[in-house]
């Protein structure tokens, strides 16, 4: 064996050893009762789905980005007194994604006892990038495995990203403690003034979607297929609409909201509870959709001025000022406790 072959063998052994070490670390973190694991489910389209085979959760949350922004899973853990929790939520999650997900669950044989479906009007309509997103979802779903003996490059890439950007329960607690009084001090008038006076590409996109809703065909049949799967495996299904901001809610046409509610009601034949309440029911205002990233240098003080002077004097990017359809952590904390109660999931002492 010449030196070149020896070097190549050593190189590949080293690469495999490093990959396996990184992967083993994350398998350990994902499988143990970990506050940091639960914190990592927030704001992630990949982490939860790719660790289902490690967690074997009793309670599985699914949905789109509204869900991974709207739930505080550490709070869910404490309120439900159960750490057998995981999630598979992706940006642009459609009903078709849910059908692909349950097929993947069948292939790996990992069945939760309870399934919490975070519903959104966006899951049942046609959008320009729908087919592209569905293709991306299929790639993520392939990361769900029943056995994790040999790591794939996609899995290791996920693991490296998690190591570089780990979720931290302690950090979430610190963030909530710092930002809660500041967010709650913003009046609804000021929050609405911010949204109406600082146009963002993300907000413009959502306004365009709200004004041009086109529901996908075959929704009753697809929901019936989903319900058949639920019934076949004896899984308890809970469906709940994840609210958007009051500002965005007001942009949708009444007929579209009515059609959406009628579609979601079709889940009732296989669901223990179907909850469709708007943002106001949870005490959510537009202020709970500002500073989604919970940046410490957010210009809270300027929003308390009367009147507010635009442009705001801040170094953060405008896109970090607000998001009309994703709750910040303070909104998620409000929503989580009330939503679990509405779904009748809380132990009696809560």
Care to describe what's here?
This protein has a single domain, classed as Rossmann fold, CATH 3.40.50. 51% of the residues lie in helices and 8% in strands. The chain has 17 helices and 5 strands. α7 (95-108) packs parallel to α13 (219-232). The termini are far apart. The model has no long low-confidence stretch (mean pLDDT 88).
Strand order of the largest sheet: 2-1-3-4-5
Strand content: 5-15%
* Model regions low in confidence, pLDDT < 50 over at least 5 residues: none
CATH fold-level assignment: Rossmann fold
Sum this structure up briefly.
This protein is α/β, with parallel strands linked by helices and 350 residues long. Helices cover 51% and strands 8% of the residues.
Please give the structural blueprint.
Elements: H1 3-31, H2 35-40, H3 47-50, H4 52-55, E1 59-63, H5 65-70, H6 73-80, E2 85-89, H7 95-108, E3 114-119, H8 130-141, H9 153-164, H10 169-184, H11 188-197, H12 201-211, H13 219-232, E4 236-241, H14 246-249, H15 254-265, E5 271-275, H16 300-303, H17 329-342
Parallel strand pairs: 1-2, 1-3, 3-4, 4-5
Helix pairs in contact: 1-9, 6-17, 7-8, 7-13
